[in-house]
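dude i think i finally got it to work??
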Amino acid sequence: MLPTVHYNMGGIPCNVHGEVRHAARRQTPTRWFPGLMAVGEAACVSVHGANRLGSNSCSTSSCSDRAAAHQCGRTVRPGAAHKPLPQDAGGSAVSRLDRLRNAKGSRRTAEVRLDMQRVMQNHAAVFRTGETLAEGVRKLGDVYQTFADVQ
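look at this
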């Protein structure tokens, strides 16, 4: 029998108003997309896992989602036009997807996922130390390198 994950943190990074963080600016988390909102289970406001723990769903809806609704009321104007998108909008994402979809490597994605799972179970379990986490980071880096040979 193997332990399993109770919940996963994640979601779309956003501020307390639900505004989505600009992905290309991970080092500068204060750059937001005005008008692009993430709420509910999609949002990750990084408040003690409120968006992922069933017992905290009230805090998600009553705090984070409510704040996002108020922000929409302050910033979104009915009938306002969006800025025109560049001709290649989304092109890099589609190219990346196509590159993975058509990859001809020797490793199946299921193998990479299983390797990641094993590293996490052995090095980032509930009971862990700085030493096991450091080794896990190194091993995850090794697994990541194998993704270059994915099919």
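The first helix runs from residue 57 to 75.
im so relieved honestly
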